[in-house]
Write a structure and sequence with these properties.
The chain is built from six helices and seven strands, in the order αβαβαββαβααββ.
């Protein structure tokens, strides 16, 4: 099963799984990311999924373009955020974004880095499209230190997901350091499977 097919097929039940398994983090991550958004911001969100983060951002920003590679996920996100007129949903490849350089005040890529064959391409694209002084915000589940997290990953992989990496906090920081990002700030949303939010300011 291809990655797009898996995420299309899982889109109707994705929120249910997350809510049952990891509700505190699932809702808390969007709220934490929204704290970093200003009312004047023009925001790009990549890998928006079912809109779990989008719905929080939409309440704070001027405009949000929320993208994903899976049509099923975009449909679910559109339903969730239908009341917000400042949100546009589009299909996009995070490693090949069709936007001009320095187009956005903030760019967000939630829970996708660990799924990519070439995450460096995605980081390059996120850095390219964010304005000078803007923020790249990358929330990612960290699970290697918890048995329950490892079990959840195994179950999702059995269903067809393809995880390229798994992170604990130390190797998540090393990942960005190895990519050449030295001044990264981190926030952690704690819960059954915590989420580490990396924040990079484009200098």
């Amino acid at each position: 099963m291809s990655k797009k097919v898996f995420w299309d097929k899982s889109s109707p039940i994705y929120d249910l799984f997350e809510t049952i398994y990891n509700r505190k983090v699932f809702t808390g991550t969007g709220a934490k990311v929204a704290e970093m958004i200003e009312p004047s911001d023009n925001v790009l969100e990549c890998a928006c999924g079912t809109g779990a983060i989008s719905i929080y951002i939409a309440q704070k920003c001027r405009n949000l373009i929320a993208t994903d590679c899976a049509v099923g996920m975009l449909k679910q996100a559109g339903k969730k955020c239908h009341m917000y007129q400042n949100v546009t949903f589009r299909r996009a490849d995070i490693t090949n974004l069709k936007y001009k350089d320095e187009s956005f005040d903030k760019v967000i890529a939630g829970n996708v880095i660990h799924l990519l064959d070439e995450p460096e391409k995605a980081l390059h694209e996120l850095e390219r499209v964010v304005k000078q002084g803007g923020k790249i915000i990358i929330p990612t589940y960290i699970n290697m230190t918890r048995k329950s997290g490892k079990l959840a990953v195994r179950i999702i992989e059995m269903l067809g997901a393809d995880f390229k990496k798994q992170f604990d906090m130390d190797c998540y920081k090393k990942f960005f350091s190895d990519m050449g990002y030295k001044n990264v700030k981190y926030h952690v949303v704690n819960g059954r499977m915590p989420c580490a939010i990396a924040v990079i300011v484009k200098e």
